[in-house]
Sequence to fold (669 residues):
Amino acid sequence: MQTGVCYFPEHWPRERWETDVQRMAESGIEYVRMAEFAWNVLEPEPGEYDFEWLEEAVELVGEHGMQAVLCTPTATPPKWLVDEYPDIRQEQADGTPLEFGSRRHYCFNSPDYRRESRRIIEKMAENFADNEYVAGWQTDNEYGCHETVRCHCDDCTTAFREWLREKYGDIETLNEAWGNAFWSQEYRRFSEVDLPGPTPAEHHPARLLDYQRFASDSVVEYNQLHVDILQSANADWFVTHNFMADFEPLDGFDVGEDLDFAAWDSYPTLHAQQAPDNPAPEGDPQAQRVGDPDVTGMNHDLYRGVSDGAFWVMENQAGDIRAFPYSAEPGEGMMRLWAHQAAAHGADVVSYFRWRRCQFGQEQYWGALNNYDGEPDRGLGEAATAAEEFEALPEMAPPAGDVAILVDYDSQWALHNERHTPDFEYWGHLRAYYRALRSRGVTVDLVDADTDLAGYAVVLAPSLHLVSEDRADRLAAYVEDGGELVLTIRSATKTDTDKLRDDLAPGPLEPVLGARIEQFESLAPNLEPQVTYDGDTYDYRTWGEWLQPEDATVLGRHESGPATGEAAIVENEAGEGRITYVGVWPEPDLADAIVQTTLESANHPVGQRLPERVRLTERDGHTWITNFRTDSVTVDAGAGDFVLGEETVPARDLAIVDVPAHEITISNK
Ligand code: GAL
Fold:
């Protein structure tokens, strides 16, 4: 486990670089990411390259015993390029092109932009191919940030039609697959199919879904272009990309297939405020200081899944940030605690954003390890401590859980196209179960819905909305072979092309479940819906379904509304395994009860229900106890030894012990 930092040498006088780089090394930093948005300084005039400054910066980094991570600088095409090829710009749904003067103003499908990207990447790759100090590359920066995955330009129209032709072969098949008999939406040929622009009422959901798939695939293809060039220039380089938190429009697993590992950008106090499952716009007051450990944690685990192993945090929050609506300074100790949290979840490198607060441009209000005068800011000492502590830890394999949550971007898009209520948000629903598992200290793998599930004792498939016959067969086989599967609201409702079936949900999974979903409703918070489960009554939120059991056993019934008395939660044994269907969106107590029963039924150890904002995270025989609270907690680690810290873990601090999480007891008296 190591640390890194993002550095922009082009923002500072050369005389300063040596001091900066030396101080990085003194702070225990091992990787320095550079050149992220530097296209214009690398190629100030078309075809005239200047790599000398970057070579010098890389050299300095290497001389101080660190490694450079370079970036393809394509997130910011320079002015001359935009002027030469104005069509490379993204267009919004109403046809407005994005202007130069910010970033991410390009279209992924523009042939001109692909050619120009190829050119600058090839030049850079060739130039640095033999440089011993370059460890690897980050492609572009945060694909899709600022809502830029989905473009509406002419190049995208052409590419979309081609994508559809490849998928459906002929237009009749497309009409049938989408169900275009509705509202007279049939097409006669692919050239008639436009990108979804402004319309009076909502769009056809199947058309939207395919457009969203196409847009995500376009990024995958564009990223592949970067990867191919870099890998053929130097096979020893790693190639990664820095993804974002709770990100909807881009299928991380698809992009990840072409990367050596995934990285992501973690800004806990920003993400806690933006998380859809936050109670108020500003979140709870504590989260403004420490973030929400399960929002941060779930994204660590997602990108561990995308990486299929260890991942990086490419940008870790280094202090206050220009987050909206509020930008509180993190609590004392958080820069160190966040680094450890990342390491516990499987990060091999935690790299801070950025070395020094910028003195100009759009991000002057975004904090850094050093203040804008170049002197250490609040985070630097903490980052140095984390680096020192990482150094002392043994090498560890990334966490590998035997409990999985299935993630399906296509289901997410389909659900969001037809939410039925503004409160229906996919990541928030997943997190209801993630939180429950994590508050019992369970390691959770977030994996692609079509991953081989054989190694998992428990699999949760929250709102796995689109289920093809194939997918259903795989899930059924998992259960019959002894698996413990939990399906939740809106699962297996539709086909892969977003249609309801002849049979009620869960369609092809009905024989395994032994029950059908008869009715469903979305619920405003003031309806205060309730269900029973295992003899107790619980609140739930947002969505309720009632089921008609055939062979299934009823575990919970509705206690409110027209559903009163109807089945809400059922289970069934099938083959060697068990399947549960949860027809409500559980509040935390119900989620905990369901998770506990499920773990016990799979003979999985169940730890104590942890105090709020304390998390136990296992990595390779070690457990991190991370305390995000404002008071201390006491750890009873049984026979375990403390590798770091001690029995009393102060506020915003941590300890590491060498026993599994379920053997640890935490008290906060
Ligand atoms: C990230 C981005 C960085 C920088 C940072 C602070 O999202 O990757 O380039 O913009 O936020 O705004």
Remarks:
- Residues 616 and 625 are 5 Å apart (CA to CA).
- The pocket of beta-D-galactopyranose is lined by residues 141-142, 145, 265, 315, 353, 363, 366 (CB under 6 Å).
- The mean pLDDT is 97.
- The two ends are 33 Å apart (CA to CA).
